[in-house]
Amino acid sequence: MKPSSSELVFNSTPAAVWISIGFVLLVIVLAFTGWKRSGWRASIGWLEFLRVLIAAAIAITLHQPEWRETFKPDTKPVVAVLHDATGSMETQDVVPANDPAAPALTRAAVAAPIADPKLWDPLRERMNIVIEPFSSQEDPPAEGTDLHTALAKTLDESRLAAVVLVGDGDWNTGEPPASAATRLRMRGIPVMTVPTGADTRLPDVEIVSFDVPTFAVAGKPLRIPFAIDSALPRDEVISLSLRTSSGIEVRQDFTLPAMGRLQDALVIKPAEPGRMHLTLTVPKTGAERNVENNKAEADLDVRKEQLRVLVIESFPRWEYRYLRNALERDPGVEVSALLFHPDLGKPGTGRGYLKEFPKDDELTKFDVIFLGDVGVDKLQLTAEQCATIAKMVRDQASGLVFLPGMRGHTASLMATPLGELLPVVWDETQPRGWGTAAPGKFVLTKAGTESLLTKLEDTAEASAKVWSSLPGFQWYAPALRVRAGSEVLATHATESNQFGRVPLIATRTFGAGKILYMGADGAWRWRRGVEDKYHYRFWGQVARWMAYQRNMAQGDKMRLFFAPDRPRTGGTLTLNANVMSTSGEPLREGAVIAQIVSPSGKPSSVRLLPAGEEAWGLFSGTFTPAEPGDYKVHLTCTEAGTALDTTISVQGTRREKRGQPARPEVLREISQITRGQFIDSTDPAKVLAAISALPPEEMTERRQPIWAHPGWAGAIVTLLAIFWIGRKAAGVF
Q1: Which terminus of the chain is more solvent-facing, meaning fewer CB atoms within 10 Å of its CB: N or C?
Q2: In CATH, which of 3.40.50.720, 3.90.230.10, 3.40.50.880, 3.30.750.24 is domain 307-547?
Q3: What percent of the chain has pLDDT over 90?
Q4: pLDDT, the chain, mean
């Protein structure tokens, strides 16, 4: 690279000039005097001339002479234009300033002219313009904003002069953008930030959740929870519509709270088995400007249900009789009963009765097991059978219901593996429970008010009212408190102990299964005056809730269930498979492979491993869905000699929130740190003018300090040496 100019420059001061002139003049006077005294000898004249030359060199050194060369760079400076290409830029909240009544534009539409290469054509003669979109390292990338990485990557440009950052300021992944801005500041690179979007949320209504379950039962009511956020300035009455592909339509009016959230549920009753598509729609409400988020869709698998339930009891008490009757009248439930009758010495017989406790291969076919007032005793359960039931719950996702009674047989289960499954701590000093002359009442807890198990009416308020009016009970089990990890749904209305109100209904999970504890022997009384209305509904809900996970997908020798039952993108989805060998026994070892195809067609494979050495046909693995929609799952196992195909619907939880206010304060901070400019306008002309106003690039300068160069010092030393040697040679001492 040739220099465009070069010159000799002195770094001097007026004082140094006068000192150096005086010094040289003094040396000249002394030299002339010495030469005169020598009688004008030629040799002395040359020595004195050399003395003056050395003095002049020393005087020049005092002025720090430098040789400066300036170079013009061979390449143009670079301006990086970064524009946000993430999901939040789809927010439609930019109202044209010249027409407030016009439809709002999306942030991406407003930013597009600045990212247009044609805008920058006037500057291309003196600058290289690099236009890049930015998002994140997420999958998909547009579902995240990483401002730090976007800014840090610009530092790879060797001749970066400035950065233009266009976006809404939102960031939700990566390091804080201020750290990248600090690095740009250290390089002297300004960042011109251009905010897009409104910093206050426009009037909007958004469906934020539509929790459709994995499957439903034909002919049974299905409750579908939903949540709607409102950014409206006042309460609004909305008419919510739920349509299905089979022609069912449900409309219901709700009051949407101002600047709040509505959480409720709609109830549908699918008639026929099959795949059903559901669409939830909110009409345009109030001054709402964006209706794109007023609709949510999901698929639902409707099945013809046939649950298998086993009821185990010691004596035919009223609770057992009415429970068995209610379950037998349910067309979706197949009931088997094992009534020990220890006083008769032989089990009960009749339609649906078992002669003995089922073998392992038969027991695994039951979805729910009801354990009444039965324990480990002669002509009742054995410790081995209790261990088998515990394995069923843990590994086969079966449900277990504890229904203790006043004979107190449940106390004998505490020393068996079933004792660990009980959701409550038993009072060993009162194994037969407590009887009361005055009927006791249930009181729902907050969890009970919201639980699907205890919904006896369609709304929480009506359901709580029903529970308070149900006929009471005159016996309750000796439960002291609930165990850690259990959830109390109902307590005794009046009775309490040192731990608080006595728990009456509690649930918990154990392994892959669910457990329910019912601590009062009086649910059969709920029929009084209303027949089966509440008694039938409660036990039907219990059976289906406990068998729901187990029946997500099943085939001849394999069953697939997963948790959570309403998976969302970005969350861990645990896949559990119950696999039977070709002989019909639970498989302990084998290669269970789940081949998964995402909604976009991306394949993946998950190997399900045995859940443990004691696992009873249970294989587990994990998978993280990255996109919403239906995932096709093909489950295979060579040892079972069969395959299972099913679909898992994943709901989208977006990291990139649409409709949220922009964050211009983030962009303002970046521009302040880098000493750039915050351009509070999306006018392309103003952005172009800001970059055009950048000062011209400085020429590259190279300085060679002559006064500090070894050659200059060497020359002075050489002259001094010659001067000294000359004096000796001339005989001057």
Answers
A1: C
A2: 3.40.50.880
A3: 34
A4: 86
